[in-house]
Write a structure and sequence with these properties.
alpha/beta; 9-stranded mixed sheet; 12 helices
Length: 349
């Protein structure tokens, strides 16, 4: 048995340099979580750890360079690239994925854009992924599709490989019916039918699983029993799989010499002040602005803590091409300046 992992991004990203194409490790929760799982397979004595990862290499590649990139990715990283034009990726990724699905599925309907051109490119890129998978798929493979970028792919694969074993996992919330139905009728039906192409559809929480089942029942008319949905002559299962962290890794690294040295360096900068640490990707759904306002209110109502509690806010830039993310960055900068201007002193920021 071989595992085909299919996600929007590969675990490595191609970057153009003067000396040619170089590869860097990709960032993000999906890549981190799956990479840890695949690493665990390598040390397991119970399974063969043969797998391929199918995804976009992070850059538009000209036709004449594709064969070389494809061979390097396969040889060095067990990866199969899906080549997508810059224009299609702009409308697919920055458009439908991050201006339509991401805000709506995170309950920000006022940020949601409904653009038929975005939808057309979403369908096209899912079809491009299907062609890439079909080129490498074997009869005994397990195909594991990931996240909101590829919700049409399970059905596209099922149509070409009716006997394939296909799983899908959604790494973000699945919204309740009242929010999901804000998508145009044809879009929401095609997304649900796309997911039902899988044998097993996984979600982080029980609520997300139940919301999905209710949407399937109310929009497509397929009832379920204990998470099992009858679709033609197939049974699709929807289940909850909470995704955790690699506990041993974090537990060990916390007491490592490198961590202790970093802690000592931080202590030099903050002195005896209590340190409040916040780390997140730059995203309006992460609540960063709410945290800053909470910290501001804390200092305002507890003046005895001024100079004694420092907030270290680590915000990793992402999706800089999306206007809502640029606005979030601007609001964070303004609020940080306001807090420091109001409460900071010559000796404390």
């Amino acid at each position: 048995m071989r595992l085909l992992v299919v996600s929007n991004r590969l675990p490595i990203t191609a970057v153009k340099k003067d000396e040619g194409m170089v590869f860097h490790e990709s960032v993000g929760g999906l890549v981190s979580g799956l990479s840890a799982y695949l690493d665990s397979l390598k040390s397991s004595s119970f399974v063969e750890s043969e797998y391929l990862w199918v995804g976009w290499p992070g850059i538009a590649v000209r036709d004449r360079a594709r064969a070389g990139i494809r061979q390097r990715l396969m040889d060095e990283f067990k990866s199969v690239p899906v080549f997508v034009s810059e224009r299609s990726m702009e409308r697919f990724y920055y458009g439908f994925c991050n201006r339509t699905l991401w805000p709506l599925f995170h309950y920000f309907p006022s940020y949601t854009a409904y653009d038929s051109e975005y939808w057309d490119d979403y369908r096209k890129v899912n079809e491009d992924f299907r062609e890439a998978v079909l080129k490498v798929a074997r009869p005994d493979d397990v195909i594991w599709v990931h996240d909101y970028h590829l919700m049409l792919l399970p059905r596209l694969l099922r149509e070409a490989l009716p006997d394939a074993r296909i799983g899908f996992f959604l790494h973000i919330p699945f919204p309740n019916f009242e929010v999901f139905r804000l998508l145009p009728g044809a879009w929401r039906r095609e997304i649900l039918e796309g997911l039902l192409g899988a044998d097993l559809v996984g979600f982080h929480t029980r609520d997300y699983t139940q919301y999905f089942l209710r949407c399937v029942a109310r929009i497509l008319g397929h009832d379920s029993n204990l998470g099992r949905i009858s679709v033609g002559n197939r049974v699709v299962r929807a289940k909850t799989f909470p995704m955790g962290i690699h506990f041993e890794h974090f537990h060990t690294v916390a007491s490592s010499p490198e961590t202790e040295a970093a802690k000592d360096e931080i202590r030099k900068n903050v002195g005896s002040s209590k340190l409040i640490l916040s780390i997140d990707r730059l995203d309006y759904s992460k609540g960063t602005i709410n945290r800053l306002r909470g910290y501001e209110a804390f200092l305002e109502h507890n003046p005895e803590w001024r100079g004694k509690a420092t907030l270290a806010l680590v915000v990793v830039p992402s999706r800089v091409g999306v206007e809502d993310y640029q606005r979030t960055k601007r609001l964070i900068d303004e609020l940080v300046g306001k807090i420091n201007g109001t409460f900071g002193t010559m000796n404390w920021t």
